[in-house]
User: Fold this.
Amino acid sequence: MSPENTGPAAVIVLAAGAGTRMKSRTPKILHEIGGRSLVGHALHAARTIRPQELALVVRHERDLVAAHIADIDPAALIVDQDEVPGTGRAVEAALEALDALHPQRQLSGTVVVTYGDVPLLTGGLLAELVASHEAGHNAVTVLTAVLSDATGYGRILRAADGTVTGIREHKDATDAERDIREVNSGIYAFDAAVLRDSLAHVTTDNAQGEKYLTDVLALARAAGGRVAAVVTEDRWQVEGANDRVQLSALGAELNRRTVEAWMRAGVTVVDPATTWIDATVTLDEDVRLLPNTQLHGATTVARDAVVGPDSTLTDVQVGEGAKVIRTHGSGSTIGAKASVGPFTYLRPGTVLGETGKIGAFYETKNVTIGRGSKLSHLGYAGDAEIGEDTNIGCGNITANYDGEKKHRTVIGSGVRTGSNTVFVAPVQVGDGAYSGAGAVIRRDVPPGALVLSLAQQQNTEGWVLANRPDSISASLAAAAGATTTSSSTPASTEEG
Ligand code: UD1
Ligand code: MG
Assistant:
């Protein structure tokens, strides 16, 4: 046992079921709410109680599920369930696989069983279950809830003195038993030895022809063990996602809880109903989130920053005191006191320095922008490096793609570029250089130079009156003094 794994001997997460009601090519437990798959939430809760071993029982779409687990929790043991159906068989398979890890000794102590499709269960409630189980020296402790409609669930059977005697599955229950509203959540703490011995005696002799885990309770009691229940008032924590209606309801409730927790931690959320925060996001005190803001993945927002309205950030680091307005961003870093938006598209690899600015109608990708530099309006900056205190004029573009390869643009510090400057990469602009409006920079610009792309401007006077005689332009031009006679005179030109 490693020092950080001081919890129960094992958590077994059951996830072999098909989840047909989702009507999906994606296995049910890989569907996501709040930035994690359903099974991701289950494993996260399981990890919080620091089990010495964590096993996940799979069968349906086994390879897809195993690949996902390898991604999110590679230390979890994947256990294959055989053709014998039922939750009891699933747990038996897990116990065998866990015992095989340590051939010299059988698993002993507390074994927790949970489901892969119960995403709102918290580590806190699991810890309560384990604490109550161990304090009572129980053989089995089952987590239950009292529902107004218990249809479909296993019912908790209690003796006259209130002690738990067993669980009856809905399909096997009598009418009187179906009136019981206390239900089995499917989440339990077991003594490993009792679990192993009882499962050996569980049959498939029931309405569904399955090996029921629930039969362990009556067997454990008959063998003299204490069987008890922890009743939770919080039905959301034991609710499974079986179809897309439940998935959405669970997603909304998870979000409501996440948003509320952040408000209690000192974050202002102006409109909780339109603010969506993944379980994986972190926020500092005094962050302000304005309506219609979605924060996803590994996004972090530092103190005093304001995000929104109407912003979606995925894996974005927002620095202290930064402002991000109407922005769609991913894989980016926004420095302290920097400002972004409105109507800004930050693509992966955007790094904006402190007090910098990426303004309206800008798209950025794979660009590092130094402290205090500003890209205020209308442009594209990609595959580029921009120094400090540089001002990029309106409508500037890095032309980074030659049709086959991407090339880099390097712009120094203290640079001032005119409107509509185009940087034809690969190209470098030295510190303190200037460009004039419409410059097309194809060759490197030395520090401090002014770069102009000269094109002649030609005015052909009287052209509109001669060629668009009946137009509104012609009548307004005539009223302003234009005449057709001058159309035959040589064009006046001006160096641009
Ligand atoms: C089970 C319980 C029931 C409880 C309900 C709570 C049994 C016999 N019944 O019923 O008392 O009220 O959960 O939701 O345990 N699974 C496997 N292998 C299997 C069968 C199921 O891994 O062979 C997994 C499923 O993927 C699922 C969980 O176990 O995550 C529960 O299976 P499900 O078929 O939904 O059980 P219920 O019949 O609803
Ligand atoms: Mg079932």
Remarks:
- The two ends are 77 Å apart (CA to CA).
- Confidence is low (pLDDT under 50) at residues 486-491.
